[in-house]
């Protein structure tokens, strides 16, 4: 599939409307039949934050170097990581979970990873709003540098979409991909500077962590944008987008070559 055809299969008005409609249905279906419904999407992350706050701030007396409230410091990096985990898992299983649509001759399967990403983004948008309200409550008033938050939201969404196309195609043929993703996201919980500051590491270890774990670019960027209004680090921004371009080319090639075989292996 050519680059032009690949993009045109996603980015036209009718398909965008269909994607949003499918995303709303996907979002509702996750909580269909449960008493609390969509509240379950907030209960677990909120309980997780409260637990971490108690363990690290109340019990262990953890503090930040610049006296930022620890719970705010933690949540500002945790919000994008939770979106990454939710979005990555959902996008990777998009084709297998919607196998009945993949088997339809006339259905454009290229929209499915985007559907899953938008479905996950509904919750992410609410958490971003709660994060900003929490920052305001702690006295972190809006500043010009906060605009960089928009950049990081778009960067993470693009990164997830590219990974989604790549992994959703691979998951059709290698079912272990879902388990690998689960393991890697758990490891990433501790290799991403969520609970600890990257400034505590020696420069070469810090750079190594950022290279092998590009999610650090997003989580650190969120934190810097919300709390300090900081700008992205130039060298890591170049590395991050270079990686995205490489993954994008790989995703287009693999998804395009395997597309005709999806229905045979699902």
Automatic annotation (TrEMBL):
Membrane topology: Multi-pass membrane protein
Any one GO cellular component localisation term in the record: plasma membrane
Localization per record: Cell membrane
Residues of the ABC transmembrane type-2 domain: 36-258
Keyword Transmembrane helix in record: yes
Keyword vocabulary terms for this entry: Cell membrane, Membrane, Transmembrane, Transmembrane helix, Transport
Stretches that traverse the bilayer: 31-55, 70-96, 117-141, 147-167, 179-196, 233-255
One example GO MF annotation: ABC-type transporter activity
Principal place of residence: membrane
Gene Ontology biological process terms, A to Z: lipopolysaccharide transport
Keyword Transmembrane attributed: yes
Entry-linked PANTHER family: CAPSULE POLYSACCHARIDE EXPORT INNER-MEMBRANE PROTEIN CTRC, INNER MEMBRANE TRANSPORT PERMEASE
Family: Belongs to the ABC-2 integral membrane protein family.
Protein name: Transport permease protein
Lineage, top ranks: Bacteria, Bacillati, Bacillota, Clostridia, Monoglobales
């Amino acid at each position: 599939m050519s680059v032009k055809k690949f993009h045109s299969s996603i980015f036209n008005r009718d398909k965008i409307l269909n994607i949003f409609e499918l995303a709303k249905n996907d979002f509702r279906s996750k909580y269909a039949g449960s008493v609390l419904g969509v509240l379950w999407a907030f209960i677990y992350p909120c309980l997780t934050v409260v637990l971490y706050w108690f363990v690290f701030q109340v019990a262990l007396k953890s503090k930040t170097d610049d006296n930022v409230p620890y719970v705010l410091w933690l949540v500002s990096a945790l919000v994008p990581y939770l979106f990454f985990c939710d979005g990555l898992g959902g996008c990777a299983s998009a084709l297998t979970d919607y196998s009945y649509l993949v088997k339809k001759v006339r259905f454009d399967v290229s929209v499915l990873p985007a559907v899953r990403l938008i479905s996950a983004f509904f919750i992410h948008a609410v958490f971003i709003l709660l994060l900003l309200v929490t920052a305001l409550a702690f006295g972190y008033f809006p500043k010009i540098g906060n605009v960089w938050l928009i950049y990081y939201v778009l960067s993470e969404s693009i990164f997830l979409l590219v990974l989604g196309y790549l992994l959703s195609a691979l998951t059709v043929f290698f079912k272990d991909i879902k388990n690998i993703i689960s393991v890697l996201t758990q490891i990433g919980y501790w290799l991403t500077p969520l609970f600890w500051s990257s400034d505590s590491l020696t420069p070469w270890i810090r750079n190594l962590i950022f290279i092998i774990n590009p999610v650090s670019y997003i989580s650190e960027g969120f934190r810097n944008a919300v709390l300090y209004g900081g700008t992205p680090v130039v060298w890591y921004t170049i590395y991050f987008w270079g990686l995205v371009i490489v993954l994008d080319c790989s995703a287009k090639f693999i998804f395009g070559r395997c597309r005709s075989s999806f229905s045979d292996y699902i």
